Amino acid sequence: MSERLRQRDSEAPATPVPLRRNRRFQILWIGAAAANLGLETVEVAYPLLIMSLTGSPALAGLFGFAQIGTALLVGLPAGAVVDRWDRRRILLISEAVRALTLAFIVLILMAGRANFALLIMAAIVLGAGTAFGAPARMLLIRAVVPDHQLTAALSQDEARSGAAALAGPPLGGALYLVSRTFPFVAAIAGFVISFVCALMIRVPKAASETEPVSNEPVGNEPVGNEPKSALSPLTNVFSGLRELIGDRLLRSALLLVSIFYFSITAAILMVMVTLQDQHHSAGTIGLALSGTAVGMLVGSALVPRLNRRLSPGALLLAASTLTTVAVALLALPLGPVWVFAMLTLAALGLPALKILVDIMIFRQTPDHRRGRAIAATITLIGAGSPLGSLAGGLALQFLGVTGAIVLIAGVQAVITVAGLANRHVRSARWPA
After folding, report:
1. How many C-beta atoms surround the C-beta of residue 68 within 10 A?
2. Comparing 147-151, 211-215, 248-252, 257-261, which segment has the lowest mean pLDDT?
3. Which sign does the torsion angle of CA 86, 91, 93, 94 carry?
4. What is the pLDDT of residue 160?
5. Are 207 and 370 in contact (CB under 8 A)?
6. What confidence tier does 235 reach under pLDDT thresholds 50, 70, 90?
7. Which of 4, 221, 360, 412 is the most buried (most CB within 10 A)?
8. Model confidence pTM above 0.90
9. Which domains does the chain have, with CATH numbers?
10. What is the pLDDT at residue 194?
């Protein structure tokens, strides 16, 4: 009898480990949080440093453009590499390269040899490191988190981004006041912590490393862990983009997230002009603009509840409608508290949209194609901010603040109405 009970106990399914006790995920998360905080901290220092060296705001903007532009250009090829190589090793290399690049900046600052050409080269290396590290980290998270904890894990990851965006800029500004090198040292520490955390975990091998070679088709062409001769390099690189565009719901979600970044980036530029015209201090303006980070932080906590209560289509349309209304209300010149409140409101739905995209990719895309799909997602979403900055500047020049905000809100409204009219979006369901 006792032997039978022991046998039954051994056959019973093990109790799932709560996410907070999932050691590998929490170690990965700590590393990601440290790296993200370092990135947000040093982002303040780049324009301040370049302005002090060159006196040119245009060159300060060019540094950011070079970093983001490189990440976008390298993103799709990086996804193909992430699908074929050890993802943990890619993350380790990415963090090491970014830490060494920042250490180089510290050294040339201490030696008095810093110049714009060297900083632009550093921006290109940092952008490339981001292009490889971001999809590798996402796939490592998926590898250590079971399906039933995926939404909670991605919500915690989004909360990390919101918290870093909230704490990083003021920390970076304070460190820069003490020494020009301190924000860079803080970012180096973040990447070193991330590197050590990645070293501490062991993850299952990716499907591309363990599955036999096959010619699995997507549409009419094979992709994934196929023989190298099966796909041209160009087709292989763009296969993740084709997969996203071919799915109606993913296509709509990516468009809405990209338009969000487009709208928010443009709107932030516009409200900065408004607040400056109202003679508010730089500190007050910074606090008002932190509403976006607060909205992301609060929105991350709402994701599990929203995912349980709303279908993907309803979630997409509700978040887009909320952003449209909030951006339009920024046209009212009611001061920094109003700006903070509207930016918070506009950003509330963003974590849910990003997690919706991630969940659909993780659950619908085979492991050996996820790197390309995630890299394509990052590329498409990342394009929204520079386009918003460009459009916002042009709209301000020709339409003024109020007209520019109304135009940007109108673009967001058109995309929302198109989603409402799309029956495939309205009837979408969560993947099993």
Report:
1. 18
2. 211-215
3. positive
4. 86
5. no
6. low
7. 412
8. no
9. 22-206 (1.20.1250.20), 237-432 (1.20.1250.20)
10. 96
